[in-house]
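Thread title: Can someone regenerate the structure for this chain?

I was given the following input by a collaborator and told the matching structure tokens would be attached. They weren't. Posting the sequence so someone can regenerate them.
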Amino acid sequence: MSAAEGVLTSLLRQSLAQVLARAKVCEAGGGEAVRRLRVSLRRLRSLLALVREEFPGPDVEALRAEAKRLANLYAEARDWQAFADLAAEAAPQPGLEAVIAEAEARARKAEGEAHLDPTALARQLRAYLHAPEWGADEPADAFAARALERAFRRLKKRARDFARLSAAQRHEARVALKRLRYAVEFFGPLFGPSESVEAFTQRAAQMQDRLGADNDAAVALRLAQRLEASGNPALALAAGALARHVAPDGTAARRAWKRLRKAPRFWRGRLAQNEA
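Best answer:
Regenerated them for you:
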């Protein structure tokens, strides 16, 4: 097994172990446990996407599909909880507490209906790792540099003309950013502790936070409309008032992208060696 294959195998096993551990915690309660589980599933999906780009095949596609299915089970719960959290940060207004209580109740209901079972994912991934046929006969940092550069270029393409992006296009940029940030988490240690790794990681995290806030605002608008149509006049009135004060603002995210785009790409030196 090459160094690159060893790193990928270790990362996949670690990611699966984290998913299984957090899924067990979710059995005892939701809220923060659900958020952590969804993060673990996203990390695993991002890692599988990196593997797929280098070594495509039906097995890795099936793994990504199962991880996505599991993550989507909690999407409704996550959205309602994000809405409740955003409403709790809003300026006090009549009926707001009722809106928060309703959103949290819907989040708990969605959690209770999720019934996440990672058994099939674990079985499929362990079988996949039993005898991988990747053929990645190269140093781990060489593979990592190529994967990081590909992820950065994908984000750069998705974020072009950022100020003019539609909501759907901004979502695509956010997905590309998540893949890049997780790739940095996976492979950054291969390049040793350095200021450039730390600076890039921080700027990627800042951009993800800004895009996440914009996404939560967009979700809040959509869910407020659902509450307005709920048939409860008092709830509808309060939700409508909240919606008028919540709107995605891409200014901070755009600035964060400019900072990230200018950050030194710590893997470029290794990439240059690959191309020499």
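The radius of gyration is 21 Å.
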